[in-house]
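Recap slide: Acetyl-CoA synthetase, sequence and predicted structure.
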Amino acid sequence: MLPQADTYEALTADFAWDIPARYNIGVDVCDRWAKAEPDRTAIIDMTQGVRNDISYATLRDLSNQFANLLTSLGVAAGDRIGILRPQSVETAAGHIAAWKLGGISMPLFSLFGEEALLSRLSDCGARAVITDAAGAALIAPLRARLPELAHVIVPEEIALGSYATDFAPADTGPDDPAILIYTSGTTGAPKGALHGHRVLLGHLPGVEMSHDLLPQRGDVLWTPADWAWIGGLLDVLMPGLHHGVPVVAARLPKFNAAACRDVIAGAGVRNVFFPPTALRMLKAEGMALPGLRTVACGGEPLGAEMLAWGQEALGVTINEFYGQTECNMVLSSCGALFSPRPGAIGRVVPGHDVAVIDTDEAGEGDIAIRRGSPVMMLEYWNNPEATAAKFRGEWLLTGDRGVAQDGFIRFVGRDDDVITSAGYRIGPAEIEDCLMRHDAVASVGVVGKPDPQRTEIVKAYVILRDGVAPDEATRDALKSHVKSKLAAYEYPREIAFVDSLPMTVTGKIIRKDLRARAAKEAG
């Protein structure tokens, strides 16, 4: 935990990492509390619309039953275990079970289409997937192309009561692999960021800072972000369980202000991680949410107007934080210690070394994190070339540009082609590849178009094959194609039919020219 401090300077000066020689996330977030305070509330289950408090003892028993089930099926240490479920007690138990048996959990988004699932499951050679009926139906037609996937487990269809509630956890070290989270595929196919057990410990200072020195008496955590993303899993769920702070599980298939208010009121939520788009929707609907102690936000910088609205409607200073799948929660604001600076993405979280390197005359350079941070990935899964390219000497490159000013880092822009839409980081290459598989498409370029509500929307510039009509029916068919093959949030909300695309002499699409065109269209 962060030390007690009244200033940021004291917080940083007094901080030191305490990474034990032997450490297992599953034991830390579950068994430790189940032994000390078995009746303590771990998860507040709101998935059925009514409150159901789940104790640490119950979570331990369920995760142990999962671990015994997996072991009986031959799943062993080092095996990759996909977790394809929305927020639920079973989702948390599935991850914990994987870690207890020494396996590697892989969060999967329940809105993934078949190609998104296939690419991730095949790339890592997943041995098992814990899912629900809807997820099992998605995976079923893919099984023939996934020879290493031996088991698709739907807990609701299994007599879990027949499995023991005792399980001897694996003796793991902090650098032993624990979590495989795939990136958004900004420069090609999504890459699997492999993290060791220490990744949770590495997250804690940033989570504590972004929630004004979490934990405090009465804290209850929730996020509308899916637990399949690092922001849901490691910024909220697992840090909450580590600290003994109840975490709310709720399903909002489509975010709306009224449902958000009901979850917060029904579960007594005091601490929320909101993606920027959720905050903008709350603001647009005039929704006030009294009673919150903290609100954290990450994904892209908020402006002065949004910060001012947060004070008025939420009664708190919105704490912005920064990181990425490969190395998360390394910059943060903390309203309890210092005032936010609009346009900045926070100050360096204690324990990390973050800098803007290789700056130009204006002070702009690459935002980078020095090796040695426990939150940093071990490597990209089976991709040593991409791993090597991620580093410049001792520095991990985020791919973002920034300026260091008075102890804050101001975000300037992305150095790659990532699209930030509604809090999701979307890689254009995967969408382009998907569209190119449609019979109507001859060529395509995908970029982000500025949007006041979602930061950006996905826009596709499409050259059609001869004989295909450039009409609304074709647009709808292409949108549906992406929705069904990838994920619902990745489909192009706008499609322009064009005769040509800007290309380099080597035949690569010049996306910066398309981004400039999209920005001009947005006005």
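Residues 56 and 501 are 56 Å apart (CA to CA).
The first helix runs from residue 8 to 13.
(End of recap.)
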